[in-house]
Structure formats: structure tokens, C-alpha cells
Write a structure and sequence with these properties.
9 helices; 35% helix; binds zinc ion; binds D-[(amino)carbonyl]phenylalanine; 306 residues; 8-stranded mixed β-sheet; two-stranded antiparallel ribbon
Amino acid sequence: RSGAPRGIHDAFLNYDEVTAWLKELVGLYPQLCTLISIGKTYENRDIWLIKCTGNNGATNKKKACLDFGIHAREWISPATGVYIINELVSKYAAGGLSKELLDTWEFHIIPILNPDGYAHSHARERMWRKNRKLVSGTCYGVDLNRNFGYQWNTGGSSASACSDTFHGGSPMSENEAKALQNYMTGKSWNTYLTFHSYGQWWFTNWGYTTANPPQYDELKQKANIGANAIKAVHGRAYTVGSSAQILYVASGGSEDWTRGALNILYSYCIELPPTGGTGFIAPVSEILKTGLETFAGVAAYLKALP
Ligand code: ING
Ligand code: ZN
């Protein structure tokens, strides 16, 4: 493509466009944001993490880790990540909700956790899900949301390299999972949110078992605060509960690992709109609509956390 850069609300930006936008943003707001590469993919792309917090001088801020785009074809996820980053940073100076959030939280946001898959979905195969490691012969890709090292390979994942839910050769075998592990380990997190599409679910643990996680009622109560705040914007309802109970059993998910291995109580997987219909191929009009309501939901949820 040539010409002026596409605006963040006008199109599903590709990996290079998101990278350029992140670099521009940290150039504009160096007092609020820093851009870190937390690792390289198989195809040598950077996995970007933007850390944003208010320059209000407060110490001991709460820490939130948010990731988007672990699955390549779920384009509304990175678009929503970009929306949230932009909302927080560009509206900080105006005061209000963005200032309130950035002055009390450190946001560590990975807008595209699966850069190779996302680039491939844009350039070649729209419905690609996994990363792009050459696994065997003609089969590519590990499902990153089956590769994490807590209860890995205990159900709902595949040992076949050609499968869309291939869990990889060993837990945390993939650069993207390892990058998240290296970054998150040793810091104290108040919450972890991972964003997928589609379905309009706010999932608690667990994914690997239908058993209730410890403190399930508390987890559902906090999730409902977020879901209700989303619904208040455009009337779109989310269902709250454990992913294994609501959807299917699946092991090796990132939010099972953040709860089980890192002991982050408030670990959730959010499945963005729609509930059906266009599925992964959300229209461009969804960027603004989903961004707006998701920001409202995440903000209300964060404000309710201890
Ligand atoms: N859904 C998730 C998936 O990885 C999920 C559902 C959530 C599984 C939490 C396990 C744990 O299959 C999508 N859309 O990818
Ligand atoms: Zn997904």
C-alpha cells in the first residue's frame, strides 16, 4: 500500500502498521509509554509490549497485563488492544477516566502476541489461527493457546502438527509463550486479561477442567462488573463463567497458566463480539463499537479490583 497511514479506527491494521503506530505513539507520549520487544518470533518479528502509566509520581501502582491477538484470525482483538492503548494515552491529559486509570495502574499491553500468524492471516490465509513455525513436512503452526505450561496436554488439544489445536512438542515450546513467560515471571500482577474472538463471553478459569476454580464466586462477581459495563454501552450481553463449563475443555491456555503457575487470581479470557454471524470476519464498523464498549467494561472491572 502507499499513501497516508490508515487510521486506527478505519481499518484492521496489519502487523507493520501496528508497529509503526506504536512507535509513533511512544514518540508522542514518552512521559507515559515505553515500547519493549519481549521476544522474537520464528519469522523474526518483534513481539511488542507497550508499558503505559501516568506520570503522577505515585509508587506501588497496581499492574495489569493485557494481551491481544494470540490467535491470528481474531482481528477484532488487536484492533481492540490498539483502541484501549490509544484511549488511555491520548486522553490522559484531558483528565477523567483515562487519567484515573493511568494514575493508579501500570498497563503492560501486548497488542499482537502472535505476529507471524497475524501477518499470515492478513497476507495469505484469512482464517489462520496458530503461529507459523514449520512443525513437520508440510504442516505449520502451534496453537499458542494450547502451549502454555500448566496442565499442558491434559485435554482439548491435539498432538497432530496439522491440527488447528496442535499443542506443540512440549509445554512453552513456542517463542511467543516463552516471551510472555519471561516477561511476566517475577513481577507481581493484579490481573491478567487475554482477548480473543468471538462469542461475547467473559471467561474465568479453568479451561483444562470443568471443576470450579478456587474463589469462583468472587471471580464471577468481578467479571460481571465488567460484563454489565459493556452491556450498558450498546446493549450487547456477555455470558460469564468458566470456559470449560460454558464452551469446551481446552488445556494449555494462557489464562490457566497465569492462574495456575503465576497464581494471578484475576485471570480471564475475554471473547469479543460477535456471537455468531460474521464470526472472525468482523466488519470495520466493529472496531469503534467493540473498542468503545470493551474499554468501558475493562475500566469498570479494573476499578472494582482490590
Ligand atoms: N477460544 C478459546 C480457545 O483457545 C478458550 C477458548 C478459552 C480455551 C480459555 C481455553 C481456555 O479455543 C478461541 N476463540 O480461541
Ligand atoms: Zn482465540
